[in-house]
């Protein structure tokens, strides 16, 4: 199936070059009036399009940039409609199909073929094979833990990295791929495990971290959706569970946790991208992760969920406008991490509480983990800011992973400086 998909992408790209086919495109549109806002909301729901930014039509606002993906078969229709209503647009990505083909190109599936393995995107089958190989190659350091399974009965494997047997070690949880189309996210999880194993006793900071902390790394939290993006629909976001009473498929797993579940910022409509599910943890994927975190909450000190795109380091809360109890502490950590990224890589990351720097997004895993008691809870939105969006080329993987790695190191070292137990009283912090 993968070979057919790649072959199809190649033929589409060739047809586009030959003038026989309109390639998929990504448009940047900034509505200037409420009328234009309403037209864009209609376009994003009534036509075959993919709303990249914001993720929900509800969040389209005047003077706020919208990133809209148009498949080849609807690009001219939508652009003509925008023109008729005098809505200015810029083509950010004119050749989306060629970029998709480039993302799927993979010359080697062997993790032992060298570090270039980690600077390509991989099929779900390749990732499962990598999990098995890594656990087998490092039996004294890595353990594959079956956390649960997806709706379509695919396993959810987390790798536990434990580099020594020190008693009472704290741990960090990292999950990737909660949204299927965000391919840079699983790529980071693979990169992080490889880096940790390769640079233990080489890199001073990584050695210090791994001597004192274990890691649980879940490379693909949404395997059904991820598989679907490789075989059927590259821009798929949700999981793949059928919903009663509708032909629409899937739940947004990052709206399915019990943190102000299904309030403003999530949708109760199964056809929407931000559908919250029928009840909190209705989905086997979110329930599996929640159960694991509940059973390990005494040892897991840091929670991190990896997403894309927009280059943000996010702290609670996203589910409400309330300030987290240790807001100023968390804020200082992400500010320091963003400063480090700017210093080393000359790239800018926005930081702060999600509800303030993006919009309300209830039911998120990070807010739920925070309320569970994991008081160092973060979401990273990796590269880029929209030039390629979800179609970040393989040549950008290394840079994106290096930036996220630096942020992880910075935050973990800061947490390790803290007393294990104390949280202190509610603190006032700078506005996010």
TrEMBL record:
- GO cellular component terms, semicolon-separated: extracellular space
Which Gene3D superfamilies is this protein grouped with? Answer: Metallocarboxypeptidase-like, Zn peptidases
> What is the name attached to this protein's record?
Carboxypeptidase B2 (plasma)
Boundaries of every Peptidase M14 domain copy: 120-415
Protein's GO biological process: fibrinolysis; proteolysis
This entry's Gene Ontology molecular function terms read: metallocarboxypeptidase activity; zinc ion binding
Q: Which family does it belong to?
A: Belongs to the peptidase M14 family.
Asked whether the UniProt record includes Signal among its keywords, one would answer yes
> PROSITE patterns, per this entry?
CARBOXYPEPT_ZN_1, CARBOXYPEPT_ZN_2, PEPTIDASE_M14
Task: Name the residues annotated as catalytic in the UniProt entry.
Answer: 381
InterPro entries attached to this UniProt entry: CARBOXYPEPT_ZN_1, CARBOXYPEPT_ZN_2, CPB2, M14A-like_propep, M14A_act_pep, Peptidase_M14
What is the required cofactor set for this protein?
Zn(2+)
* Key words of the record: Carboxypeptidase, Disulfide bond, Hydrolase, Metal-binding, Metalloprotease, Protease, Signal, Zinc
Q: Which domain of life is it from?
A: Eukaryota
């Amino acid at each position: 199936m993968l070979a057919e998909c790649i072959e199809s992408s190649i033929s589409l790209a060739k047809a586009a070059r030959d003038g026989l086919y309109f390639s998929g495109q990504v448009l940047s549109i900034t509505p200037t009036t409420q009328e234009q806002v309403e037209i864009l909301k209609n376009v994003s729901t009534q036509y075959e399009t993919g709303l990249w930014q914001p993720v929900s039509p509800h969040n389209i606002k005047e003077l706020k940039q919208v990133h809209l993906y148009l498949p080849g078969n609807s690009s001219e229709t939508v652009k003509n409609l925008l023109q008729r209503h005098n809505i200015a647009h810029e083509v950010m990505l004119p050749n989306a199909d060629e970029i998709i083909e480039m993302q799927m190109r993979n010359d080697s599936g062997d993790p032992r073929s060298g570090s270039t393995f980690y600077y390509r995107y991989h099929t779900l089958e390749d990732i499962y094979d990598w999990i098995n190989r890594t656990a087998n190659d490092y039996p004294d350091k890595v353990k594959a833990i079956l956390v649960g399974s997806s709706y379509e009965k695919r396993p959810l494997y987390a790798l536990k990295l434990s580099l020594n047997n020190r008693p009472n070690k704290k741990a960090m949880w990292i999950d990737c791929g909660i949204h299927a189309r965000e391919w840079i996210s699983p790529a980071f999880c693979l990169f992080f495990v490889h880096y940790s194993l390769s640079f233990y006793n080489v890199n001073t900071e990584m050695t210090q971290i791994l001597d004192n902390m274990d890691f649980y790394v879940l490379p693909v939290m949404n395997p059904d959706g991820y598989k679907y993006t490789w075989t059927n629909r590259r821009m798929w976001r949700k999981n793949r569970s059928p919903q009663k009473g509708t032909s629409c498929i899937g739940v947004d797993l990052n709206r399915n946790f019990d943190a102000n579940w299904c309030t403003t910022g999530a949708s109760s409509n199964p056809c929407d991208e931000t559908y919250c599910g029928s009840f909190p943890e209705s989905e086997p994927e979110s329930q599996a992760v929640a159960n694991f975190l509940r059973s390990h909450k005494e040892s897991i000190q840091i929670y991190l969920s990896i997403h894309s795109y927009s280059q943000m380091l996010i702290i609670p809360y996203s589910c409400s406008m309330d300030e987290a109890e240790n807001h100023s502490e968390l804020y200082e950590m992400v500010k320091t991490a963003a400063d480090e990224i700017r210093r080393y890589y000359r790239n800018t990351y926005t930081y702060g509480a999600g509800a303030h720097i993006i919009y309300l997004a209830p039911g998120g895993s990070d807010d739920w983990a925070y309320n569970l008691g994991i008081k160092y809870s973060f979401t990273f939105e990796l590269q880029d800011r929209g030039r390629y969006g979800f179609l970040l080329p393989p040549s950008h993987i290394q840079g994106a992973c290096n930036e996220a790695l630096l942020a992880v190191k910075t935050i973990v070292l800061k947490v390790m400086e803290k007393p294990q137990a104390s949280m202190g009283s509610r603190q006032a912090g700078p506005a996010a």
